Amino acid sequence: xxxxxxxxxxxxxLISCVNKEKEEISHLIAKWVGKEIxxxxxxxxxLQGKDTIDFSLSRSSYAIVSYVDSIGxxxxxxxxxxxxxxxxxxxSISQEKIPVLLYFCPKDIEEVTYxxxxxYFKYPVCIDQSDMFxxxxxxxxxxxxxxxxxxxxxxxxxLGNPIQNPKIRDLYMNIIQxxxxxxxxxxxxxxxxxxxTNLSFGIFDWRQEQKTEFVLVNxxxxxxxxxxVVTSCGCIMTCYSKEPxxxxxxxxxxxxxxxxxxxxxxKTIKVxxxxxxxxxxxxxxxDAS
Length: 289
Fold this sequence. Notes:
Elements: H1 2-11, H2 19-32, E1 45-47, E2 51-53, E3 62-68, H3 74-78, H4 80-93, E4 100-104, H5 109-118, E5 125-127, H6 132-137, E6 147-151, E7 156-159, H7 166-176, E8 192-193, E9 198-204, E10 210-218, E11 226-231, E12 236-239, E13 250-257, E14 263-273, E15 280-288
Parallel strand pairs: 3-4, 4-5, 9-15
Antiparallel strand pairs: 1-2, 1-5, 3-6, 6-7, 8-10, 10-13, 11-14, 12-13, 14-15
């Protein structure tokens, strides 16, 4: 019965998707919610990839565990700056310390160490070269479902990446604060217009930051409120106004791209807001040479 309640609660927070995706998500939820996560006997955590520290899972009411595999762009997956903000917010809303355990299985330790230092990530992480954590649990292949909210018995209460989806973030926060029956509030919708949703930086020196902006025009009859902006890569930083935008007014979304190495890139940015078309999908491309 408890599992069924959690399934219903979790499903109510998911963004709209096609039927096939809904079925896949429902299957993942049914399989994983209530399952106990198994931790390796020996967990070695480090600060910025160099200082080994004694970091054990404390017996708090909840804990958040995230696994990052070695497939694809490491910088795109880590989102260290977003995790920093999330952990700070988590500390501010909970009376007890909620552990956030980040397990990385990188092909290149030096790259991870560089990213930890570059983003001044001051929290401990576990660099699991042998991929033991995944072998013990056989996590889902989809990156968005490799993060879990656990109860004090290490059983999964909810799954999904709070860094990639503000609805999942709100879900985690509500559960941690005991607001299990809180549903998403209905808000007045508005409409937006954008002259440009795709932008190319062209060819440029990879050591030089690239900056641009997207302009959102509120063409509806309600104030426009941006809830969150999620990027597909930690190399993209965003800045925007948190204030409501009146009808017929505009808001600029400032984008900064900082390459970690020479590469061709094709990155996406999702803008979550109270517009009917939310999340709004933007794209930036280019060749950092």
